[in-house]
Design brief:
mainly alpha, two-stranded antiparallel sheet, elongated
Length: 181
């Protein structure tokens, strides 16, 4: 607040500080986030990507189990499982990029997490199947709990990172010079 100290000394103006209110902080944070392009990750958005990763992981597990059931035309069913898993992977990347507006690195991390969760679930299911069939679990199955998620999650991260970077590159608005972050 700006006010003159006295009527005869109008040249000297004192600035009296006012305490900042919560509304002022929120407004300046909103202005900063709009100006800088920064995005705040709200709890609902955080839950959205976790839900999407869990759903995609469950889809990978279901595809892996259901498409392994048929004993005839195994090559066809294996190819169909690859195609359905690829569609789930592409849909997950698209959801992260277009709906949640994540940059390439979080998009790739979330997609790779979903793939690794699906692989871990398949490793657990395989170990349980082996345990029920022979009532003895070999130590290499414990190794599968680490190897399967890593062997699927790391390549998935790289593929999703490239895919999300390409989407970011071609999804820019005309006339902007936004770089890939």
């Amino acid at each position: 607040m700006v006010r003159a100290d006295s009527a005869d000394d109008e040249r000297r103006i004192m600035i009296k500080p006012q305490p900042l209110r919560v509304e002022d902080w929120r407004r300046s944070l909103r202005l900063y986030s709009v100006w800088s392009g920064a995005r705040t990750l709200h709890a609902s958005q955080r839950q959205s990507w976790i839900r999407a990763a869990l759903l995609a992981g469950a889809a990978y597990f279901i595809v892996g189990r259901v498409f392994a059931i048929p004993v005839t035309r195994v090559h066809f069913w294996r190819l169909a499982a690859w195609l359905v898993s690829g569609a789930v992977f592409a849909a997950h990347i698209g959801y992260e990029h277009f709906r949640l507006r994540h940059s390439p690195r979080p998009t790739a991390s979330h997609a790779a997490l979903a793939v690794a969760l699906g692989a871990l679930a398949l490793a657990v299911a395989g170990a349980l199947h082996k345990l029920m069939a022979t009532s003895a679990l070999e130590p290499r199955w414990l190794l599968a709990f680490i190897v399967w998620p890593a062997a699927t999650g790391l390549p998935a991260f790289l593929v999703a990172l490239v895919a999300a970077a390409v989407l970011t590159r071609f999804n820019r608005r005309p006339g902007t010079n936004a770089e890939i972050r």
